[in-house]
Amino acid sequence: MSELPFILDEMTVEDIPEVMRIERRVFSAMWTSGIYRREITANPWSHYYVLRPKHPALPPILAYGGVWRMDESAHIPTIATHPDWQGRRLGSYLLLHLLLKGEALGCTEATLEVRASNYPAQKLYLRHGFEVAGIRYHYYNDNGEDAVIMTRPTLARTALLAELAAMEADLQERWRRYYFSSPA
Ligand SMILES: CC(C)(COP(=O)(O)OP(=O)(O)OC[C@H]1O[C@@H](n2cnc3c(N)ncnc32)[C@H](O)[C@@H]1OP(=O)(O)O)[C@@H](O)C(=O)NCCC(=O)NCCS
After folding, report:
1. pLDDT of 77 higher than 90
2. If you write DSSP's letter for every residue of 86-137 in order, what string do you get?
3. Is the dihedral of CA 177, 53, 152, 87 positive or negative?
4. Residue range 21-31, pLDDT digits in tens
5. 10 Å Cβ neighbour count for 179?
6. Which of 14, 102, 118, 167 has the most neighbouring CB atoms within 10 Å?
7. β-strand partners of 8
8. Which of 125, 140, 163, 179 is catalytic?
């Protein structure tokens, strides 16, 4: 049985208020609740997940994100970790699951766009096999910032499962040492 102090679960419409609370804190140009509702209920190509802590004293959602199947590409439209829980590999764990979902849907590569100034997110993607593929100049409407296009050229299942196993071991060790909190 997993010793991880959270579970991966599909995002539901009931999750949207909590997702919006996190969204407001981490994104300068946030999505609306209507976008999330449509993504969950009306977009057949999208799949959204959340990390729910097992401990009731923690925020109900620690991280969330989605993946779209776009022909052979798994596109990551959004991913975020609760601002009080960043830097603990939750984003890495969730990203690997999104990539695995893309692979299970038949995708052979992954793509995303990230703000040029968003170094934590770029670090996350570089750590997990993404490369810079180009720039979309003045892509973001709110401030005219450029988007960095990043791609992961392969999505081999065995490689993803090995990355996930290493990530789970790292996460278990980190949470045991620094952040462990067992249910009361
Ligand atoms: C990007 C994001 C999802 C990463 O989630 P996370 O749970 O912190 O991910 P990880 O713990 O796996 O960390 C990934 C890397 O980012 C670094 N990082 C995380 N938070 C950071 C912060 N606030 N400042 C600087 N670096 C940070 C980590 O140290 C790690 O780098 P390393 O591999 O060199 O150690 C999270 O920072 C976030 O929610 N950001 C706001 C929303 C966002 O920008 N989403 C991406 C849109 S493209």
Report:
1. yes
2. TTSSHHHHHHHHHHHHHHHTT--EEEEEEETT-HHHHHHHHHTT-EEEEEET
3. negative
4. 999 999 988 99
5. 12
6. 102
7. 51
8. 125
Quote the pTM value: 0.93
Determine the distance separating the centroid of ligand 1 and the alpha carbon of 107, expressed in angstroms: 25
Domains of the chain are 6-178 (3.40.630.30)
Q: Is the dihedral of CA 91, 94, 98, 103 positive or negative?
A: positive
The pLDDT value given to residue 3 = 81
Residue 17 has pLDDT above 50, yes or no: yes
Q: Which atom of ligand 1 is nearest to the CA of 81?
A: 39
Calpha distance 63→102 (Å, rounded): 18
**How many CA within 13 A on the CB side of residue 57?**
5
Residue written as tokens 């450029």? 146
CA distance 148 to 137: 9
**Annotation says 93 is catalytic:** no
Pocket of ligand 1 (CB under 6 A): 26-27, 63, 79-81, 86-92, 114, 118, 120-121, 123-124, 127
On average, the pLDDT of the chain sits at 93
